[in-house]
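User: Please predict the structure of the protein below. I'd like the answer in structure-token form so I can feed it into my own downstream comparison script.

Assistant: Understood. Taking the following sequence of 106 residues as input:
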Amino acid sequence: MAEELAKRPYSEWVERFQTLEGQWAPVQTLLEAAHDHQLRANGFVAKITDADGKEREIILNPVQFDETPPKIDRGPLFAEHTDEILRELGLNEEEVIQLKVDGVVT
């Protein structure tokens, strides 16, 4: 299959595949996906605000359950939630500080 596909340019295959019945799509780079009009029309590009307050766009996971779009938020910064998690595990303030002094956590 790869040998046959290599015989023609990408643009020709895209044109030929347009007539196929069923699902197909070329693999896209991140930049291509970010500018894909169909992704945007289907709501798979969303805006989030990063930790510095800057608005950014991300490509959403295309998997939806009950046609419910995913809830999105920024990813955490390094060690952003360490203290909170340790307190949820039952450690007190002194124990959290000692773990930091000992270099166990940051």
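That's the full token string. Strands lie at 45-49, 55-59.
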